[in-house]
Amino acid sequence: MEISHSFRSVVITMLVTLLAGCASTPEEDITRNWTAAQFYTEAKAAVKAGEFQKGIKYYETLESRFPFGRYAQQAQLEIIYAYYRYDEPDSSIAAAERFIKINPLHPYVDYAMYMKGLANFNRGVGFLDRWLEDTYSKRDQQAARDAYRDFEALIEKFPESRYAADANKRLVYLRNTLALHEVHVGQYYLDRRAYVAAANRARHVIENYQQTPAVPEALLLMIRAYNALELHNLANDARRVLARNFPDRLGEIEPQGKDSSNSN
């Protein structure tokens, strides 16, 4: 009896699929008999080698198979960094929050807090964004605010932590960035003749972000907004503050007539 060509093709396809499945079985079962220590060692080695996805998989499997004990706890801590390096900031933040909640008295809980702040600090930031500070300050600042709260909480709770010094430097940077962002928003309102909103943004910077590079910019913005509103007494008050603290910036104030003409 002659076997049709189509039937032979089906049989060959099934055999190839079966053989492929058999060939992959040993690889899938490679960790079947691993101990918790083996999982931890292999995960750590994978992360060190830059194989973050593999390291994450091993850490997750370690915790699921051996949920109790020091290796599981260490996996919970170290997966925070693995997610961070794998450019999964949300997963890194979630892992850090989980570790902090489960292990509030752990000797390395300060590290988890620091990594949470670091993940927020770099969330959604491209390679060049930190160098182009003006562009970065114009972006949505929710992640920056979250990072600020994270680093602030770390320093408040663990002022002697080995991560406190770096966290403090990042706080200064974030504070400057948040202040400059408020100025950009204020300028946006000014350009659209929403002068009250512009003045309010400028006042917010002066009241909440003193000693940042954005303060003279906020004073200039306030002067322009108040002049446009014909609130010249308030504009002159801001001008005096600018003259006393940043006299070199006085030349940037437009003649009052020009400011006033913007409101027409």
Question: Any overview of this molecule?
Answer:
- With 264 residues, this protein is an all-alpha fold.
- It has a domain at 36-103: Serine Threonine Protein Phosphatase 5, Tetratricopeptide repeat, CATH 1.25.40.
- It is 73% helix and 0% strand.
- The protein is built from 13 helices and no strands.
- It has helices at 5-28, 36-48, 52-65, 70-85, 89-102, 109-121, 133-137, 142-157, 164-191, 195-208, 214-228, 232-245, 256-261.
- The longest helix is centred in the C-terminal third of the chain and has 28 residues, at 164-191.
- The chain is elongated.
- The N and C termini lie far apart (97 Å).
- The relative contact order is 0.05.
- Mean pLDDT is 87; it is low at 16-27 and 257-264.
Distance between the termini: 97 Å
Task: Kindly identify the CATH topology of the domain at 36-103.
Answer: Serine Threonine Protein Phosphatase 5, Tetratricopeptide repeat
Examine the secondary-structure arrangement and name the CATH architecture of the domain at 36-103: Alpha Horseshoe
CATH superfamily of the domain at 36-103: Tetratricopeptide repeat domain
Mean pLDDT: 87
Structural class: mainly alpha
Q: Main beta sheet: strand number and arrangement?
A: none
Return residue spans where pLDDT drops below 50 for at least 5 consecutive residues. 16-27, 257-264
Beta-strand content: under 5%
* CATH C-level label of the domain at 36-103: Mainly Alpha
H/E element sequence: HHHHHHHHHHHHH
**How many helices does DSSP assign?**
13
Helix content: over 70%
The coarse silhouette is elongated
Q: What radius of gyration results from the CA coordinates?
A: 29 Å
Number of strands: 0
